[in-house]
Amino acid sequence: VLRGCQLLFDQALSEERLVSMARSLGSDVPFCLFGGTALVTGTGETVMPLSPMPRVCITLVTPSFRVETAAAYVALDDACGGDFSASKDVPACADMCQALDRGDLTGVTSRLYDQFAPVITAAHPELAEINRTLRHYDCEGVSMSGSGPATFGIYTARRWDMAERACAAVRARRVPAVITEPVSSAYALFYSDPEE
């Protein structure tokens, strides 16, 4: 929407200004300005483009219950005894970036990790069942997204059939799920000049 408004109103805003506006809307929003595969750090303000994801399909599961981010941080802090440090995952992150550079899907999916997953799954055991279902259909990797409860399973592009089966099995439990693919950029504008 921010990029669309910029074009619609012919406003030449700097990337810094756009990112600042996006951050005021939420910490995940700056990434949405760029999309593709990226490493996002800080409170969402630093978006570093990475090599694209290998061709995959993703079963995205969006349970209907909510997880409040502030409560998730409190639960994580309690579980870690107050010794929570994001820097613990830096080596795995660097390894994942290198796997992306090589186009190594297994190298990427073997490093999927979400620090919130253990505490959120403990509070919502149905997430463990969703994970088992996705794994049952031979996904390459499963992870929760952020503080949850959205969860995803990654399948090689040639295993679209298994992604569909996993999606159907999750939906059979009345849990929303869709199949999607990564995109190379955050936006595409389709514009036709009325003069032409």
For the termini, the CA-CA separation is: 25 Å
In helices, the fraction of residues equals: 40-55%
Radius of gyration: 19 Å
Number of strands: 6
Shape: globular
Q: Classify the beta-strand content into a percent band.
A: 5-15%
Structural class assignment = alpha+beta
User: What is the average per-residue confidence, as pLDDT, rounded to a whole number?
Assistant: 83
The spatial strand order of the largest sheet comes to 4-5-3-6
Order of helices and strands: HHHEEEHHHHHEEHE
Low-confidence stretches: 188-196
Largest sheet: 4 strands, antiparallel
What is the count of DSSP helices, taking H or I runs of 4+ residues?
9
What do these coordinates show?
By secondary structure, the protein is α+β, with helices and mostly antiparallel strands. Helix content is 42%, strand content 14%. The strands form 2 sheets. The protein has a 4-stranded antiparallel sheet. Strands 1-2 form a two-stranded antiparallel sheet. The longest helix is centred in the middle third of the chain and has 13 residues, at 90-102. The model is unreliable at 188-196 (pLDDT under 50).
